[in-house]
Predict the structure.
Amino acid sequence: MTGPKVVIVGGGFGGLAVAKSLAKAPIEVSLIDRSNHHLFQPLLYQVAMAGLSPAEIALPIRSILSGAPRTEVLLGEVVHFDLTKKLVALKDGAQFGYDYLVVAAGARTHYFGHDDWAPRAPGLKSVEDAIEIRRRILMAFERAERLRDPAQQAALLSFVVIGGGPTGVELAGALSELARRVLAKDFRHIDARQTRVTLIEGGPRILPSFDESLSAKATRALVKLGVEVRTDAKVESIDPGVIRLSGGHLLQAETVLWAAGVGAHPLGRALGAPVDKGGRVIVEPDCSVPGHPEVFVIGDLAHFVQDGKQLPGVSPVAMQMGRYVASRIRAQLDQAPAPGPFRYFDKGSMATIGRSQAVAEVGRLKLSGFFAWITWLFIHIWYLVGFKNRVFVLLQWIFSYVVYRRGARLITRQDIE
Amino acid sequence: MTGPKVVIVGGGFGGLAVAKSLAKAPIEVSLIDRSNHHLFQPLLYQVAMAGLSPAEIALPIRSILSGAPRTEVLLGEVVHFDLTKKLVALKDGAQFGYDYLVVAAGARTHYFGHDDWAPRAPGLKSVEDAIEIRRRILMAFERAERLRDPAQQAALLSFVVIGGGPTGVELAGALSELARRVLAKDFRHIDARQTRVTLIEGGPRILPSFDESLSAKATRALVKLGVEVRTDAKVESIDPGVIRLSGGHLLQAETVLWAAGVGAHPLGRALGAPVDKGGRVIVEPDCSVPGHPEVFVIGDLAHFVQDGKQLPGVSPVAMQMGRYVASRIRAQLDQAPAPGPFRYFDKGSMATIGRSQAVAEVGRLKLSGFFAWITWLFIHIWYLVGFKNRVFVLLQWIFSYVVYRRGARLITRQDIE
């Protein structure tokens, strides 16, 4: 090995931040990911709701890092770590040695022990997820258009979103808008405006991590969009066509979306380090694995406590951790003093409701309504990787805001029953 | 039935032209298609070569026809016709009666009796086809990047396109450009500029339907792009990793694309009318099925002879036939004199070679080079359905022409071996 070698597992926000921060350093970097693209997850719900195409929010990782000559990008699946020998093993048998290892494999949809719900209630973590959700939604309308029985049509035009966090709120709002505003004129035998969207939240209010006043505003905005919001409603079973809630309530719905839980990627456990009950690796204040100062875990895979609270699994946390870890590695190699422990600077949280409303919280500042939405738009576009994507997504939104036609409504590999 | 009923099978160029021409008439129209979108096929090779996203060249059919209140769009697969009872039967059992029937089901990839070649040499007729081709191409580079054996890498970086018509020429040119200009800086263990692209043509020259001088110009442009052009080369077998040509020549290639033949959709035979050996329905001079003046076949599914020559399966033919059939139907309903027999006005043919060259032939006018390419660009953008798509595709091209970064390089459902 010529120079020090850093292996990064995962090309999401965390892993990419490490790689970009090390791009100019005299360090060999290998970034391994199971997919070829970096995904801008905050906008994935737009793909699921036929508002954006996948390519508008995803870029090939090697393309993003093409200007870093000492960085290689490898398409492969990591399955095993040997922290003693400092090796990473891939599914195809290949092994890579490292001097530093950064595991940023992210999170997965989590069903709290009910993995059998997965086929009936898909989650939203990847482009494939988003395309499948989009397909199911569009097919529900297509199938309803072919029927003549009002009860069957109503069942097909009933959608349930489980989980009242930002993802669920965004899905529910966008879905209701899609039905009422975009699809309304496209059908002859159904009235898409009669679509029922129900958002289910197990706790007492949606957006529990936001201030109460913003939860209330978001609820009102959703109701105005035609979404029924049910709180204190836990899901007990998900069967074809019907969901049973706590208290014996039944909900009839053909299409169910799961936004109620994410857990750590299984690679967290593969490290052999202490994990929380979601599988997240409990890291030191410098994001390293206990006993292995050269191995770091960042992003959604890490359990990091700051000021007594666990940091959430959101992209700014992953990005800041990534940059921090890169600076630690560079400092060590430069034999410079190490930076202090990691500290996350909370730049706030946001959630959109439909195409023109949002709630946002930055410290004590609370925004809502259209102004919050504009702020959300610009911040997200700013963080979108790739200048062209920024231009195109902005144009796409201006266009659909003015014209309200959603073009990304492709059904591929459709089921025709 | 209230008014006269027209059933259109297929939402491609032909079927859509009929529907759009009848949109304002007091006629009930049902358009049935197996997929939900209308596809702009001339640009499908751009999706296969990661230059455009599927949604940029496809629009939901019902969205295109949403302004026609008497037109319904149905997602379904037609499997049977009863011309006596005037019924169309779908796979799911539904039946539709008609007063007029227009069958515009198009063409399918044709392997001349070698259907076993299909898995190893995919064709390019649908969005799914294009996505699969794109996946195979991008995966070949990803796999080569993981290897260290130069012979294995060279095999993975060898591509063969079979068929020297416009589709094959466009695929081969775009593929060579993708490798040499777009992917060149993205890899560390392979030199993408060493990619071998071979275009195979069974006849004496590529683009046989064009003037000889343009075939020669196209050949030179392809060679300059790094494509090897082999004419008088018929394929005898396609096996994993190797193709055998007439004369015993062997070509080693990991990825093979088929652009050598299209045949009629099987629905042509289902009509029970006389067909040619490709399965195309031999229609009357008014595009109707012999003995059934109320049943029309148009587009790639029709065998129409004009001035002793069979009309080619290109989009302008389908569009003109569609408009013609619509005018026949309207004339009959208005009890006006019927238009004369169908006559195709040839607006010319074009084929691109790479991102800045093309050959075009309009009557006796022959264009080549960059000027032909600009002409091609504007004509295709003009015919692209949907204003937004026109704007976006134009911007997309201006952007990649200037910057040369192809963003639509997504691999979904990838095979990691």
Notes: The first strand of chain A starts at residue 5 and ends at 9. The first helix of chain A runs from residue 13 to 22. Chain A has a mean pLDDT of 92.
